[in-house]
Specification:
- The chain has about 300 residues and is α/β, with parallel strands linked by helices.
- The chain has two domains: about 210 residues, 3-Layer(aba) Sandwich (Rossmann fold); about 100 residues, Helicase, Ruva Protein, domain 3, CATH 1.10.8.80.
- Helix content is about 45%, strand content about 15%.
- It is built from 13 helices and nine strands.
- The strands form three sheets. A five-stranded parallel beta sheet has the order 2-5-8-1-9.
- Helix 2 packs across helix 11, helix 11 crosses helix 12 and helix 12 packs across helix 13.
Length: about 300
């Protein structure tokens, strides 16, 4: 399993150049059965990362380009009367895939954005009052432009909370940008991307991650971080128990990729910003190459050796 994960990280890193930490965070989110939101300026590689993640996992995949005129039925599907069978049949939308790339999700109307809500939380959708199960596993990888850009609709906080992580790639360093500019093509050839996992192998990894040991002291550490967030005197939102569960799930995944079968405080700290920042500051406008001040402020106030003191 470790070899497969190493191969996945290496392949994605060969496409998304110079962003090993963000790539590792994204993979840890998906292995923890979470949905991921990638927010950055246009042209920074958001769609490339999402595409490469989906293809590398070897799952059925569909990209939806979110636009202002996209309708909920375009996402979840519609029922049409069949003259032969004399009944209404579902014509499934793009959501009926194991990996769905919601590209520029914040360019669609709030009504269309909300079509993702039930799917992301419950793994099912309702069409004309009938519930339909989605394939398993099911991941949403969404990209969005900053809220300050024209033609964007802010995601409601309830929907932001459905994303286990929010990432920003940021500008590449000099060496990475040189490699990007020296590439012979402006678009990576997806035919070169190999699938390193089968569905069965992915489930095996997810099962293994779910069984990773979390000591009571680590749970106390997460509780302390959540409690501190509720005391911060700012416009920040407080971390809910759901945020704590997401933090533990991704920390387990991070520990697995570090080749450990137990979680340590470093795992919590490694994923804390990506898991919690969009819950603390839902409408953050300037997240590129900046210190995550809210996250660091909370982390600095809790001693992992004596978290509840």
């Amino acid at each position: 399993m470790q070899t497969a994960v190493a191969n996945i990280l290496a392949q994605i890193g060969s496409v998304v150049i110079g962003k090993p930490h963000q790539v590792k965070l994204a993979l840890s989110c998906l292995l923890a059965k979470g949905h991921i939101l990638i927010e950055d300026l246009p042209g920074m590689g958001k769609t490339t990362l999402a595409n490469t993640l989906a293809l590398t996992l070897g799952l059925s995949y569909q990209r939806i380009q979110f636009t202002s005129d996209l309708m909920p039925a375009d996402v979840i599907g519609i029922t049409i009367f069949d003259d032969v069978k004399k009944s209404f049949l579902l014509h499934p939308g793009a959501i009926f895939n194991q990996v769905v790339l919601a590209d520029e999700v914040n360019r669609a109307s709030p009504k269309t954005q909300s079509a993702l809500l039930e799917a992301m939380e419950e793994g099912r959708v309702s069409v004309d009052g009938v519930t339909h199960q989605l394939p398993e596993p099911f991941f949403v990888i969404a990209t969005q432009n900053p809220m300050s850009h024209a033609g964007t609709y802010p995601l409601p906080e309830s929907q932001l909370d459905r994303f286990m992580m929010r990432l920003s790639l940021g500008f590449p360093n000099i060496d990475a940008e040189r490699k990007i500019l020296q590439a012979t093509s402006s678009h990576h050839d997806t035919t070169d991307i190999k699938a390193f996992l089968t569905v069965e192998q992915l489930r095996e990894i997810q099962l293994h991650i779910s069984q990773i040991t979390v000591a009571p002291a680590i749970i106390d550490y997460v509780i302390a971080l959540c409690r501190v967030s509720r005391q911060v005197e700012s416009q920040a939102k407080a971390l809910s128990p759901r945020a704590g569960k997401a933090l533990l799930a991704t920390a387990k995944s991070w520990a697995f990729m570090e080749n450990r079968d137990y979680v340590i405080p470093d795992d919590i700290q490694a994923v804390f910003s990506a898991v919690c920042e969009h819950r603390l500051a839902p409408q953050q406008h300037h997240i590129f190459d900046e210190v995550n001040e809210l996250s660091q402020q909370i982390l600095s106030q809790v001693d992992p050796t004596n978290p509840l003191l």
